[in-house]
Write a structure and sequence with these properties.
Shape: globular
Radius of gyration: 16 Å
CATH superfamily: Rhodopsin 7-helix transmembrane proteins
Number of strands: 0
């Protein structure tokens, strides 16, 4: 069994842990956190099959990676924003946001939309901003959000450097950092139990 298979499996388990933790958030924030965790879970499962030598999984893995990096990331952002303005989202906008996620999912699967690198930076920036704002009132929830953002930023900026200095594959470092990101977001969601 290659190490890449193990790290993809670790990412899949991390997504399941995040999904379990997300159930503790208030509705509808829990829905968005869970959707993000599920998107990354499917990417990890298909990555495990791809790393295990199943050639048929490669095409599906590419789509799942786009889906997780686009719709999954946007879902995490909506979960974070929902926790910042819970009364407003709960009373008025959650069904519109859910409809937006469904539309984005359909457009991505039809090949008509994909988030750009700049779009991903904006989404991560919004999560960072929510984390900074929540530092004032939410303590550990904000720390988990900021830790998740830090790990997410490291996947794009420092995974090659970390791989070079540890002797591990870049994709393995990417999976470890993404595992920390997903679990951190799950922990943030579990602290967001607004009534």
């Amino acid at each position: 069994m290659s190490t890449l298979v193990a790290f993809e499996a670790i990412l899949a388990v991390s997504c399941l842990i995040s999904l379990y933790l997300a159930r503790e958030a208030f509705f509808p924030a829990s829905l968005f956190w869970a959707f993000g965790a599920v998107a990354f879970f499917f990417m990890a499962v298909l990555g495990t099959f791809k790393a295990g030598g199943f050639a048929v999984a490669e095409t599906y893995y590419a789509t799942a990676r786009l889906f997780a990096g686009s719709v999954g990331l946007v879902s995490f952002m909506l979960g974070a924003v929902s926790g910042l303005v819970p009364g407003f989202v709960t009373r008025f906008w959650w069904w519109i946001l859910l409809f937006l996620i469904v539309i984005l999912s359909i457009l991505l699967l039809l090949g008509m939309w994909n988030i750009t690198s700049f779009g991903q930076q904006v989404v991560v920036g919004v999560i960072l901003l929510v984390g900074l704002i929540r530092l004032i009132s939410s303590g550990m929830l904000a720390v988990y959000l900021l830790l998740g953002v830090a790990c997410l930023v490291l996947t794009e900026t420092a995974d090659s450097w970390i791989a070079l200095n540890t002797g591990m594959d870049t994709i393995s470092i990417f999976n470890v950092l993404l595992s920390f990101t997903v679990v951190s977001f799950g922990l943030a969601a579990s602290r967001d139990n607004w009534d």
